[in-house]
Design a protein that fits this description.
heterodimer; A: 108 residues; alpha+beta; B: 259 residues; mainly alpha; 9 helices; 0% strand
Chain lengths: 108, 259
């Protein structure tokens, strides 16, 4: 019985790992700026960006280097998958307010 | 702000204007009247408004990938319309084919306006509460829309004023490129939403023609240029163009055989 329980416990302890999915990285948009504006991610790893737009205005997360574009309505959030990527710098910007909304993903 | 508004609106208008102008020209060359355009414009802008207003909710559907799914569907729908258009053109003597042909044109134009128009509405909506910025944004937007529409008008007159057979061929060629670009963009959205696994780009031509440059932007609108496409995107692009060509050729051949 004990052995079964231990086995069951072991299996349970592994389950969350199997279901964790890619790591989540949060980025906030406030006053048309990205926080943080430099996003370090590990090389060759898929990452889930959770971009929270705290401004009342819509913004478009865009990156030519990452091949990503997604409109984020005001006061809402969006999920964008990136990677796996080789090491390097990948700039992104807010298309609607590009003068201020600038950032980059740094893969290391 | 003004210059930025010009660029954003231009980018969105250019893609839709190209699809609309080519269909307008082909309709003209195939001796169709053009009343459908009005219907498509009204329905398109109505649809764009509905999509823009609900974009926040749509985005959070399907585990936060609702927007990618809808956009991929819109792009695929345009491709499907192009495919059915090409198949139905050779059979214009039959009423049902003629009707199908008209439906594909209207649906493609509506879908293109919904896709591009919704982003324009969201962008401009953001400035409504900021009077200082609203007028330069509207002014810039008007300039951008003007340039985009001018390119559309240019293509329309280019096609209509060529020799009829040349105009039809060039119109077909542009539709092929638009078709490839649509499917490639749909695949890109599926990668972004993680329904298709991302792999390293098949090539990197960003040193020759950057997607940021004016040439890169124009090429993106005209032929769906990507500096660093995923292999699946490139494959989707060329396969869908191949499918369109095959469908058009088969349809013409069948018409040739039936008395």
């Amino acid at each position: 019985m004990k052995v079964i329980l231990v086995c069951f416990g072991l299996i349970l302890s592994y389950l969350p790992v199997a279901h964790a999915g890619p790591p989540v990285i949060e980025i906030e948009i406030r006053d048309h700026l990205f926080y943080p504006d430099t996003v370090p991610i590990p090389a060759d790893t898929k990452v889930k960006l959770l971009v929270k737009n705290l401004d009342p205005t819509a913004e478009e997360f865009e990156s030519y280097e990452l091949n990503r574009e997604k409109v984020i309505a005001g006061n809402s959030e969006a999920i964008i998958f990136i990677g796996p990527l080789p090491a390097g710098e990948y700039p992104f910007f807010g298309e609607f307010f590009p003068k201020t909304a600038q950032g980059k993903v740094v893969v290391e | 702000m003004l210059l930025n508004a010009v660029i954003i609106i231009l980018r969105e208008v250019l893609e839709a204007a190209l699809i609309i102008s080519v269909f307008l020209a082909l309709s003209q060359l195939l001796n169709r009247n053009l009343w459908w355009m009005l219907v498509a414009l009204v329905l398109g802008f109505g649809g764009a408004y509905v999509y823009a207003v609900n974009l926040g909710q749509v985005s959070m559907m399907a585990g936060g990938t609702g927007q990618e799914i809808v956009n991929a569907c819109l792009h695929s729908l345009i491709f499907l319309c192009l495919l059915l258009f090409m198949i139905s053109v050779p059979h214009q003597q039959h009423v049902s084919w003629r009707l199908l042909n008209l439906v594909t044109i209207i649906l493609a134009v509506i879908t293109a306006i919904v896709r591009e128009g919704s982003e324009i509405i969201l962008y401009i909506n953001g400035f409504i509460g900021i009077p200082d910025l609203l007028s330069p944004v509207l002014m810039g937007g008007a300039v951008g829309a003007g340039i985009g529409l001018s390119v559309g008008v240019f293509f329309y007159y280019l096609l209509v004023n060529m020799r009829r057979s040349h105009g039809i061929w060039l119109g077909y060629l542009i539709l092929l490129l638009i078709g490839g670009s649509m499917v490639a963009q749909a695949v890109e959205f599926m990668i972004q939403a993680d329904y298709i696994s991302a792999t390293t780009p098949i090539w990197d031509s960003s040193h020759w023609i950057s997607e940021r440059s004016a040439v890169g932007q124009l090429l993106y609108a005209l032929v769906g240029y990507e500096a660093t496409p995923a292999p699946q995107q490139a494959a989707a692009y060329f396969i869908s163009i191949g499918v369109l060509i095959a469908a058009a050729v088969i349809s013409y051949t069948i018409r040739g055989r039936t008395p």
